[in-house]
Amino acid sequence: MTRRRTTSLLAAAAALAACGGVADGVQRGGGPGEPVPVFAALAAPEGPGRAQLRSGDLAGARATFEAALAADPDRLAELNDLAVSYHLEGRDEAARQLLDEVVARGGSQEQQAALVNLAGLYALQGYLPVAQAHVDAARGVDLSRPEPLYAAALLADARADAAAAVALARQALRADEGGRCRQELAFASPEERLHLEALLAEATGDRLGAAERWRELRGGRFAALAAAAERHLGER
User: Fold this and answer.
1) Mean pLDDT of 173-198
2) Residues 69 and 161 in one domain
3) What are the backbone angles phi and psi of residue 168, rounded to the nearest 5°?
4) Quick one: CA torsion of 53, 158, 10, 120, rounded to 10 degrees?
5) How many domains does the chain have?
6) Which of 4, 9, 80, 96 has fewest C-beta within 10 Å?
């Protein structure tokens, strides 16, 4: 996808948000639906600061990214990954501002990661159609990458489209042969990881493993994920 096409998709998403048509099942007065946590994608999973990030040393990771950016403000992979550290610290508005800059100035790899991460922020706020628009834009940047497919599968599951969710999860697994991409994702909550693991178990035919994870997710903090888990368990 060209940057012009990506920009047009994001403009449509912004217009959707401005019009108030921003979540499935929203009342006529407008407003978000239930929060749907997804995951965060790193733009350079092997670079400095990433091991700190995944180990939970968020302050150390943030300091590493900020030092790299102080030395070279054009290192947009570091800017995306700094935004991820902000998100994991609960500073979502600061994260969003950085991600917008990465989308505006980044190359395809950085731009795609930022779009996936923006989708995650909007989904966590309950704005699922806006999140979906960002995932669609991310998928168009590079069709071979699995991160947008994982995110699309999770959003489809939250919309109660289990068939699409499982199909997208299988497509993501084919794109992520060996599972390296999946291992490099960052999660802000246990429910995010559990939802992805349950859906992937479902997609690979591991019914017992999926059921165990759905039951655990059903008791989690997020109503949208608990409802998805209940649907999957009810289909057995």
Assistant:
1) 96
2) yes
3) -65, -35
4) -10
5) 2
6) 4
Single-letter code of the amino acid located at 87: H
Would you say 193 and 54 are in contact if contact means Cβ atoms under 8 Å apart?
no
Determine the pLDDT at residue 32.
84
Tokens of 26: 């929203």
Q: Are 228 and 157 in contact (CB under 8 A)?
A: yes
- Rounded to 10°, the helix 147-158/128-141 angle is 160
Measuring CA to CA, how many Å separate 214 from each of 12, 18, 211? Answer: 34, 35, 5
pLDDT confidence of residue 18: 43
| Range of the structural domain that residue 87 is part of | 3-17+37-185
The amino acid at 152: A
Find the mean pLDDT for residues 172-189: 95
Residue 221, CA distances (Å) to 4, 63, 135, 190 in order: 39, 31, 24, 10
Which residue's structure tokens are 């403009």?
A: 11
Sign of the C-alpha dihedral, residues 217, 165, 181, 124? negative
pTM score: 0.88
User: What beta strand segments (E) does 84-221 contain?
Assistant: none
pLDDT band at 54 (very low <50, low <70, confident <90, very high): confident
Q: What is the CATH number of the domain that holds 104?
A: 1.25.40.10
Rounded to the nearest 10°, the torsion over CA 18, 140, 98, 193 is 100
pLDDT tens digits for range 15-44: 444 434 333 433 333 468 999 999 999 998
**What are residue 96's phi and psi, to 5 degrees?**
-60, -40
Crossing angle (nearest 10°) for helices 108-124 and 3-19: 10
